Amino acid sequence: MQKIRPYIQFQPIGQVAKINCIAESKPVWKFNGVSLKNSSEISIYSKRYYHVIEIVASSKCREGVYECQGRNGSDTFKTKSWLVVIGKLINFLKLFFQ
User: Fold this and answer.
1) What are the extents of the domains in the chain?
2) Model-level pTM?
3) Which of 22, 69, 70, 82 is the most buried (most CB within 10 A)?
4) What would you report as the CA-atom Rg of the chain, rounded to the nearest whole angstrom?
5) Measured between alpha carbons, how far is 83 from 63 in angstroms, rounded to an integer?
6) Cβ count within 10 A of residue 13
7) How far is CA 30 from CA 5, 36, 81, in A?
8) 3-96 CATH
9) CB of 53 within 8 A of CB of 29?
10) Residue 53 has what DSSP assignment?
11) Mean of per-residue pLDDT scores for the chain
């Protein structure tokens, strides 16, 4: 039982981004290979097997690979999700063409 969603996420600058991981154990979250902890920019929380990392305001410095490392029974696993932060021009175009 390991799953991460979404595999790739396109998020406008300044918007909240959420990445979900399903695992039996509390996972270790990494961003571009570096362990993450709760901060003013990142919230990490769990409810039973459902684990979430929430990036409060997407920015270019938060763009990259998020990894969920955990354990299910005796098996360990790693799953990855990519966050792509899109710029202001894209935001304008999305608003204009909606």
Assistant:
1) 3-96
2) 0.81
3) 70
4) 14
5) 5
6) 16
7) 15, 5, 10
8) 2.60.40.10
9) yes
10) E
11) 85
